Batch of 4 targets.
Target 1
Amino acid sequence: MARMVKMVKNLLLIFLLIITLYSRFVNLNWDRGWGFHPDENNLWGASRNVKLFSSLDPKFYAYGGFPVYLYSFLDSKVQARAVSALLQTGIIGLLFLTGRQLKGERAGFLAALMGIFSAGLIQASHFLTVESLIGFFSLLLVLGLVEVCETAHVDLKFRKLHMALAAGALGLGIGTKVSFVLFSLPLFGRSLFKRPGLFKKARPLLALVFAALIFLLTNPFILAKFKDVKSTLQYEANVAMGNLPVFYTRQFMGTIPGWFQAVHVFPFIMGWLFVPIFFIGVFVICFKESPCRTARRLLMVSAIAALLSFVPMWAKWTRYVVQVLPILILVAALGADWIWEKGKIGKAIVGLAIISFSPQFFSILKVYGSLDNRLVAADWAVANIPKNAKIFTEAMDLGIIPFNPVHGENITLFNFYELDEDNTGQKQAALDSLIKGSDYFISVSNRVYGNSLRLPDKFPASAGFYRQLFDGSLGYQRVAEFSSNIPSSLFPEETFQVFDHPTVLIYKNKLY
């Protein structure tokens, strides 16, 4: 019987490993090289500016130098995405190791299971952005500090080794994105621990100096280009805090920080029961006695650092959550483990929580297992739209670029974001001229019309255009729609529907 149980357990682990690898690595060339994600393009372009040891200035400062230098060794975006996929696979292993150290093998398994089926972490695997790096380094930091707590009875050199690991992760994290500096908080949370002498012996101040050195090594241009870096960081901070309105943050107008993520982000990257289980995990950490009480409190400080990195922000993108999601998963895993111990009902609740991941999990696999809608639409256009047809479309959306090889000379970009800001009437006149003089209109995502129709009082002109377009009164008829057939309600935060599975709509002028 014991042999049978062991065999089933091993088969389950193999099955989960296959799912992990498949979901992270499937179709990394999903866009066939067109580059629809601006953050990807910026990071990849910066890495092309770098020539190690001769030209270290990436000329792009929204992120740190570490990912730029890392990608500079690679030859393609697909290889860079493979790095993200590899890191996300590593995150699953770190979730298990850290959860096991905090509570036991079951808690580690539950943490890993949540990570495996997270649609948010799977999406991050398919982009060469910094989310996977931040998530990996944050877990490595927590694991190192947990080991410092749990090896208090062991030789001092082990604690120093683990503190060095944590400091290294902190330095690389800040070298990737400066907001990671929030994760220095756990190093100095001694007042929260029952054994402050433990951290004193591990020399957190020295660890911070080590982290700073790693940051400088991965950002050698920081002093020479300090003004440029400062200016870029101020711009990014103003956008994130809502002090600088830009077209790509319109979806956050009229939303509440914290509540937006709870309703529009977490349920769709982690399942509907994740948030309540997370708060149960907070309760367990704060009020339940445990042999790992010190390490658990340290995890709570890390979770606070994670929450501070996105909850106060006016800009509430999924990626802000995903980059610190592994830390939050650990907290939820402790909550799920506590619920599991409550008998059959507890086990059923935890099982239901895992099952609640499935709609988003299978939907995101469907996205990356299929040809991108924009590519399918472009192929349709080649076969069905005459080469000399006049087309107009929305500016500021890279989804139109696959249409360019055949129809690019006759495509006009119109900036709908400026339509409602123009008091001279020139933009409206230009739009009216395009409506009359064009043969087709193509919408490559819902980024413009989604926000215009949601806030018609704020954007009356663009809302009016799309209302007339959709009801047919504009004089255009829908002739094609390319969709993943995934309800928008399943992934309501805009970036899920703009970057990797947008719905493409093609309208034909009825007079053409």
Target 2
Amino acid sequence: MNKKLKKNIPIVSIIGPANNEAGSICSYVEECIEGLEKISCLYEIILIDDGSTDKTYSNMKLMKEKYP
């Protein structure tokens, strides 16, 4: 979360399960952040790798580094 906790600010959690989504997980995260920033809220994005056999988890780690 990147904003200080204040009264009357919405708090949003997005949960995204993923299985072999290496090709789309980065754009998914970036689109979520873009939309959430527009509504000026506190947010978290929780990604769940459900046993992917591709580079989904690696891409999730990249997004975590880019958007801590």
Target 3
Amino acid sequence: MAVPTILSYNLDGETLDRLRALCAEQGLALRPVSPWECGAPVGALAGIPIAATAKAVSGGSFSDPMLVICHLLSPQLDAFLQGMRAHGIPRIALKAILTPTNVSWTSAELRDELAKEQEAIAKRAKG
């Protein structure tokens, strides 16, 4: 069975420390992703062996804070999101759940897709 894991990108020290404490409390693995790893498939970073065979690409680093939530069941996801608030973790706009669709995407591709979704939501909110 896959280990419940949180992939983190570009978090400042205090936010990362709070996230580390939350993950330890909830029995989740925390995997900070380095900029030079952003060309690897997200699934490979989450420990999925088949995703590791996908071809990595170079480049694609970004500076936005982002979380990718991997292998959590619904109750675990709810507890994690509530725990973020309880631990005073600042809002991280770019969050995704690892899915069969995005498992082979690079971190940068996933970030770009999330940013597009955020823009579309903002446009709809403005009316």
Target 4
Amino acid sequence: NALIPEQPAIEATAAQIDNGKYRYGATCMVCHGALVVSGGVVPDLRMLTAEKHSIFKEIVYDGVIHGAGMPRLGDLVTEQDVRDIQAYVISRANQDRAAVKK
């Protein structure tokens, strides 16, 4: 089991993370898994590199890796939703990182 990498810092309110959780559940979970734990077919978002986090909006909202199978979701979510989803993904990764360290 690969260790979850250190996550970038997030500046998000609890309400923004809650919105991210809701939006993730409605938009991302079907492919990327409940609680941001992938079943192994598609990337486990808790394992995203700093580089991928730096282009999260471009991946999710703009569809820059559409050719690799990740659709553009800009018609389903707002740019704020994307920031909130990223904050939720980071918060889940941090929770699971902390659980592994115990």
